[in-house]
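Field guide to reading this record: the first block holds the primary sequence, the second block holds the structure written as discrete tokens, and the final block holds curator observations. Each block starts with its own label. This record concerns Alpha,alpha-trehalose-phosphate synthase, catalogued under organism Natrialba chahannaoensis JCM 10990.

BLOCK 1 — SEQUENCE
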Amino acid sequence: MSPAAAGHEATSGDAVLFQRMRVHDEQSSPTHTYNLRPGGSGRDHERNRDVDSESDSESDSAATATSGSGPGSGSVSGSASNADTDSNHPTTARTMQTSNTESSCPDSLIVVSNRQPYRHTYDEGAGTDEENGTETTGTSDSGSGSDSDSGSQSRPQNGADVGPNSNTNPISVDEPTGGLTAGIDPVLQEANGTWIAWGDGDADFDVTNQRDCVRVPPDDEAYTLRRIDLSEEAVDAYYRGFSNRVLWPLCHGFAELVEERSDDLEWYRTVNERFAAAVADHASDDAVVWLQDYHFALAPRMIRQTIPDSASIAQFWHIPWPSPATFDYCPAHEEILEGLLGNDLLGFHVERYANAFLDCVRRFLPDATVDHEQGTIQYNGQTTRVVATPMGVDAASYDQQARETDAEQLLSLFDRYDIPRNSAIGLGVDRLDYTKGIPERLTALEGFFAENPRWHGDFTFIQKATPSRTEIPAYARHGDIVRSEVDRINRRFGTDDWQPIVYTEDYVEHEDLCALYRHADVMIVSPLIDGMNLVAQEYVAASVETDGTLLLSDRAGAHERLSSHALTIDPTDVSGFATAIGDALSMTPQDRTRRMDALRSSVFGGDIDDWMATQFALLRRVHGDGAAGIESRERTQPM
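BLOCK 2 — STRUCTURE
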């Protein structure tokens, strides 16, 4: 059997390759009209703004507001790159079976995140977000900041002409299309809740009221979006600074990359105060506040001091949590822990991160009472329950969108990147982040091509990389290394008709991404560490022919769910990694199908709706609704 045949047994010419594919129907986008404030501005420039009510969110477009300086200043404006798309502890809570997620949603829900679900911009080239548990395939930076990589992305969906006294350009609205943001959005629509996030769009505050609130979605107005604006100085210190120069590398085990800068911690504290004040503006006696990710480590304690005692506070930490030895490098580590212990409920993707958090509390807060068996912490008269609940993806949506891709769509991608049409395909989809193991992956690919010349011309690896946090030197250096390595490997093995690695930082349309997922013979997900990593699950959900193979790092949170039927790799063992690539390409069709069927069962059985239902069951339990308790506390074993 030829290498090409080994990679594409199901292929017998283009007709066979695409015989089960359907053409996606184009849908038109509705338009919306916004009532702007007098003079064309959504902001009341005369009002006095409460410093503590300011806050942040993240995205790659510029957000403009009034000026300010220093951590204690008032209303401020700014921009930032948005990047980052991780039960009862130590057991993993199992989801109660519910017909829909909204039915278990607590009343008076307030969601707090960096990334906002809807963003208003005057330009048509609005950027994309990759945080909040999601990672975009665009060229900008994501979301409430999560390292759970995902190929989902936001696109400008809706446009509207605005009034004669305003900016004459149309307003576009980015709407959530995947990941955590898309999962929470319909829940808040059902609950008529409140979402507090950074307003980073240039038209964001031209459509809000004097409390910086706007009803969303634009065509339904089902819940309130409260927007917070930040100065460039605040964004640089709080987001690019403490969040991503200290907490991100530290939590991912890169203590040597921690960079302390003056004022970063103070700005981080100030922004957390502003979010906390905004929560207090909206919290009722029975409110449930749900914070997302590492940008708000100090906010829970602040919120607890300003809202009614009967209200509940929870937080999901989407990235890993480090060992005590690594966490010791964290500036103000006691303050960080005390802030997080303002939560009634604190969630992680996997059990080892929950255990690490308990270990850190035991070591650095000697006055705390830590119960590892029950997963509880008693501190300053409050109990915090620590849980582990692995996050899923919208599996049904990826399955459907993959089935709707057509032949011309995939062939146009092959033509765009000069890929031979009969080539077997490998795929990587990542943010350009030093945690993702891309250089190690490239070294493994180089070893594979060196040891397997028969695959030259018959196997092409596509690496989709999304530039992220490029203002941070460690990220800029990492991007340079990756591009240089791709060029070197292609010079070594490439020919006039074939390049072993197709590298692109282009924006990839979601439909094109699903087409690549569907037809990739090998998907490589090889982070050095990841809280979860949703790309692995997206690939499985879109593998409708069940003829692809997943290579998965043993250091990704997703490995605990998918390890038994993926090919496990150690991303630092490049020799074993290279061998695994060859094993994946030479696997029999029967073995590939058997493995993928099992993976799909797992991904569909633990999708985003299942995860959301578990979160709300836990939130209701913490909030005092015993009838909504978790059905089982037994430890969930990997498949």
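BLOCK 3 — OBSERVATIONS
The chain has 19 helices and 21 strands.
The chain has two domains: 105-117+173-392+606-629, 395-605.
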